[in-house]
Write a structure and sequence with these properties.
This protein is α/β, with parallel strands linked by helices. About 40% of the residues lie in helices and about 15% in strands. The chain has one domain (about 5-260): TIM Barrel (Alpha-Beta Barrel). It has helices at about 30-35, 35-40, 75, 85-90, 100-110, 125-140, 150-160, 165-170, 200-215, 215-220, 225-230, 240-274, and strands at about 5-10, 20-25, 45-50, 65-70, 90-95, 115-120, 150, 175-180, 185. It has a 9-stranded mixed β-sheet with strand order 7-6-5-4-3-2-1-8-9. α5 (about 100-110) links the parallel β5 and β6. The structure holds iron/sulfur cluster.
Length: about 270
């Protein structure tokens, strides 16, 4: 089993010393006070919760992979430019919830060469339509050079027949990730904050899925269960997945198309070498 990665608020760095960490903060300068160079070795990435103009290049953590969390697409859109210098040398990812305006964030992020991480939630019909547009944009636009998650990893999981599911891709698999709330409570991810979960978080996902299977036939009969693993049934189990299945379908068809191209080019190479 891989060591757990803890997503912690910056002031808790001392408590979690020596663990693999995602450190979240509203202000990079706060990290300058609390970090030693030794701490940086265990940082998977820094999650910046508030995008603002700041003297980034003077930051002690300059060079650490950065995850910029967009909370207001309209307000945060122009602020993406602030981080282009960082992204020239070090990885920068934009995490954006699927809410009105997210599509503009994705397009600008792609133009600025940032990776994108969609936080899908339980998207309604309008948002699904926009996610289909984003998926098309990601798959067909030759100028997009950075991954748009969860599409990117899921596409290659389907292509390679890998048993990878949405909980892992979205960094919410309790066997790999833990989220420490600002009050110090250990849970699975930000969307579980304030929700009472069983003490054994390792068992949560399997117990939850088992219950869903018993209670919600939609997952039992879903052809994408292996890749989704009932991810979209949290928190509302009544959520209808017609739109989500369209996204998985498009990924599945694209993976099949890639496989056909791959086999055709392998055949052509073989013929040439005969
Ligand atoms: S797409 Fe919906 S129905 Fe299918 S496995 Fe996921 S949550 Fe269940």
């Amino acid at each position: 089993m891989l060591p757990l990665i803890y997503n912690i608020p910056a002031p808790m760095i001392e408590t979690y010393k020596g663990r693999n960490l995602i450190v979240r903060t509203d202000d990079l300068s706060e990290l300058n006070k609390s970090f030693t160079p030794e701490d940086l070795k265990n940082i998977v990435y820094i999650q910046l919760l508030t995008l603002k103009d700041t003297e980034l290049l003077k930051s002690q953590v300059y060079g650490t992979p950065l995850d910029l969390v967009v909370s207001d697409p309209v307000r945060d859109l122009p602020r993406l430019y602030t981080y282009t210098q960082w992204a020239k040398t070090y990885p920068v990812r934009i995490s954006v919830p699927v809410i009105p305006g997210f599509i503009k964030i994705v397009k600008l992020a792609a133009a600025l060469n940032f990776a994108v991480n969609l936080i899908p939630g339980q998207p309604g019909p309008q948002r699904i339509e926009e996610m289909m547009q984003v998926l098309n944009f990601y798959l067909r636009q030759s100028t997009v050079s950075q991954p748009v998650e969860f599409f990117h990893t899921m596409l290659f999981a389907i292509f390679n027949d890998e048993p990878l599911n949405m909980w892992t891709v979205c960094e919410e698999n309790p066997l790999q990730y833990r989220y420490i709330t600002d009050q110090g409570q250990e849970t699975i991810s930000a969307r579980f904050t304030g929700i009472k979960l069983p003490e054994d978080l390792n068992a949560f996902k399997d117990t939850f899925i088992k219950r869903l299977r018993d209670e919600a036939p939609e997952c039992n009969n879903c052809e994408f269960l292996a890749n989704c693993d009932a991810y979209f049934k949290w928190p509302n189990r009544e959520f209808r997945c017609d739109g989500v299945r369209m996204l998985f379908k498009m990924l599945q068809e694209t993976a099949a198309e890639l496989k056909r191209d791959y086999v055709a080019s392998a055949d052509a190479m073989e013929k040439r070498s005969l």
